[in-house]
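Quick one: structure for this chain?
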Amino acid sequence: LEKMSAAGWELKALDEQILSLVRSGLKTVKVPAWNDRVRKTECVLSFDSPESPNGLFVSLTTFQGFGNDYVDLDYSQNQNPLYLWIKWNKIAKPVAAKADGLPEPTKLGIGIEGGFQVEDEPFEFEKTHFLAIMPSRVLIPLPNAELPDLIDLSVQAIFKASDLSESDAQIVAWEEKRQVSKYAENLPHLSNGKRVPSDPSQWACEDCGVKENLWLNLSDGYIGSGRPQLDKEGKMSGGSGAALRHYQEMLKAGHKIPLVVKMGTITPAGADVYSYAEEEDDMVEDPKLKEHLARWGIDMERMNKTEKTMAELNIDFNIKFEFDKILEGGKTLKPLSGPGCVGLKNLGNSCYMNSVLQVLFSLPEVRSEYFDSAPATLAAAARAAAAEDLRAQMCKVGVGLLSDRYCGPEAVGLDGTTAVSPLMFKLLVGKGHPEFGTSRQQDAHEYVEHLLELLGKAEAAAGRPVLRRLFEMETVQRLQCLQSGKVKYTTAGDWSLALNIPMEAAVNRDEVASYEDRRAKRQKSEGGAAAAAEDKEDKDKEEPVKPRVMLQACLHRYAADGRLDGYRSPATGALGAAVLSTRIKTFPKYLLLKMERYQLSHDGTAKKLDVLVAAPDELDLEFLRSPGPHPAPGEDPLPDDAAAAAAAVVVVVVVVVVAGGGSGRGAIVVEALPP
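Got it. Here's what it folds into:
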């Protein structure tokens, strides 16, 4: 209350004069209904909350929340004088209470019962509530029996209302969901007379002899070791990948038998089942697991769990993982806080959004529009539903990241850093979207495309197009018919370049080949279990060597000519070949690049490339510039009449959706089709 006094607020007893002010404002008071959105945990124009030094004011008319710096603005525009002031004071938890805190997660999920919690603070709150009266800036302690009943009804309804709708709540909570495999219903059975021993101590990998992390192929009874996994120290361990190699070998032989079960997890209640099928490639459910196990002499009802499930291993990994292995391990880092050094809290798989916002607000044009101009934008937004105004929410993020508003001593966390929670922004941008309206993992490139589209519309409506134009460019595709020598130029608008990664251009190919050779030798079962133990010891000593490709090589691959066979020339009417190339006609202020880490292999399956792409400090992109004019002197254009157009090449874009990660990631195939 001392800070509120300094801010011009005065705590008073309820006398007749104050009661008269309350009664005069009763005509504006409403009681929130079940479908009314109550913003009681965060200011719609800032990141102020009940935890902030000056608390949060919730209008008893609109149920919108405002920080102390914005409550005057709301009153001046809407003339609603009565607010509920909510103030939460932090109180450190007793040591005993902290030791007996939340149990360790038992589910692979975020923000759900039994899963990881987005917040687990070492303190609790003392919550106080007051009736705030504007413009006199008077505070009346609550509850107060002398106040009109309508005030109490409104306040109690605000207390009971959820700040999140049912769909919004799902955005901040995530739990691993496994789909039923499409192969489970009619799973192939290759009868070969195998019987799996009922004694788990007799189980062993048929390739290397190890006795842990064993997976049984449900179609042919093969027992193989699982793939090595990244452990809590950032090293690969725990398997040789024999089960996967067996699937791949059987696939080449014409047998698609993708379902495997982790043997140590089999219980009467079920087990871990994985599908190696390219279109699934994930943990799955097998409704006929009991029947499939019985083929190999395994009775589920008699089995006991001997190993951790994959969910339990993932939970352990997230609890114990030493993140310094992927950051700056071995260095003593000083936590930073201050303007420009404010973080964004992870709201449950929201790192893709946080990284995009931090990058955007590093650009001076974005800072100018959504930080320097924020006061005017936020003032205009306060007249309407600010939580639904994307430009206002961008300004809110800008002020949170770039000002000193959330850098005070009370905002610094236990790790010495400061961060704000962009929940309102996440809900708004994800509203109605099938992917970003969930809490699943997403692709940052797809998110920035969606965000730029929404901001482009919002900025156009406001008459201030800023953000998208920073990335807009024109590309020119040149197609030359090799039969006639004639050319066609096609200009298109774009905002990013998708670059394939030429693995053959890796600058450390010899080192990678040497490492892979050593790794292959370790995985061979020359010495049975002893060799496996030696393999694990070697893995602990050696870090994986990944291919390293320079960004320049990716850009040159983009600019290279591509041959198009089966092209029907509109000049000759015959099938033949053509050459395609793409250049940039107008460069953007900032060039966005997307590395295509999912690419199609020769067998048509999508593979993720485990590769490092190194970028220099400076790049010369002149070789990407389209020289113009189009066509160039001496070039003959391809005919462009209706008949020719009907016979021209059809470009088919195939988007390959890769299971896992929660988002479609695409590979593009250009194919010439006859008319």
